[in-house]
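Hi U.,

Before I forget, here's the chain from the pilot set. I'm dumping it here mostly so it's searchable later in email.
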Amino acid sequence: MVQLLLVLTFSIVVGVAVYVAIYQGTGRRGTQTPNGRLSLTGAVLVALLVMVGLSIPASFTQVEVGTVAVVKQFGRVVNVFQPGLNFKIPFIQEVVVYRTQEIIYETSSDPNASQADYPDFEVDTATSDGQQISARFTVRFRIDGVRAAEILENLGTEQEMVEKVVKANARVRVRNILKRFQAADLYSGNVEAAESAIAEQLVIDYETEGITMVFFGLRSIGFTDAYKQAVENKQIEAENIATKENLAKQAEFEKARVITQAEAEAERQRLERIGIAQGEAETIKLQAEAEAAAILVKAETQAQANRLIAESLTPEVISWQATISWDGQYPLIVGSGGQYILPSDLFSRTEGPMPQVSSNTGITVPVVPGQ
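Structure:
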């Protein structure tokens, strides 16, 4: 509406200027009186040309991809333009653009260093056990283009919507929900439960206002220096206790190791003694068996020899052995009559005549044939 007033004012000024110029121009021609009708006609034509020239560019609006444009006419929403070139009534209709791409709202200790679309300061709150903390988080969201007209009517422009809904709801939900959790859980990094609870509530809050939440994340939670020092001292104490417990367990393990080693050594020695005794017994047994086997073989051999000797001892052999064993002396047996008695059967078993051999004593002895 303001643009229309400006264009009308500018066109009227130009028309008046043209009227004055034509009026004065026609009055300088001799004795003719100025032509007011001609001046007025020229002024009106020029003013209309100016208005048309200025209205043509204002009759089109280009909506970029990833955005929608809500059309207002005299303060009332009449249409929503989609990406592309759209026609509108110049100077009467105006558009309010909303991004339908992802938008980032982020809190940090230094918002000026943030690359988010809407940076903000971190949120201060307290845990369920009274510890002061500061939360830094990120919200990614999109505006529902179909509900852009509703958003404009209920909340205003994109910046106003972020302030009234995205920013306000996120900060309140984070501050209140973190109060349900203890500091130890948040300090240890176990923030998934808190993060899920906040995200679940924000999804509901944003959906009712035509906003789709894509992501919520707790980037970090800051604690006071006093709490950090207390936690550090507690951790050191716990580590000392754990170290002592480990030393005690090591001592127990060492004790068990020494006992096990001693038992193993005793068992080894026992088995070694058993092995030695068994070895010696086996050796003695083998020696005894070997000696018994040798005796048996010797006895069997002797028996075989005796058997063979017995089989070979014929009367002739026996007589022959007696003969070759005779030293040429007759045994003398003194009888009561002083007579010499000779063995009557010394050579009685020989068959046939035996050769006679004369000894040095003059005694003739028989000779076995073949000798």
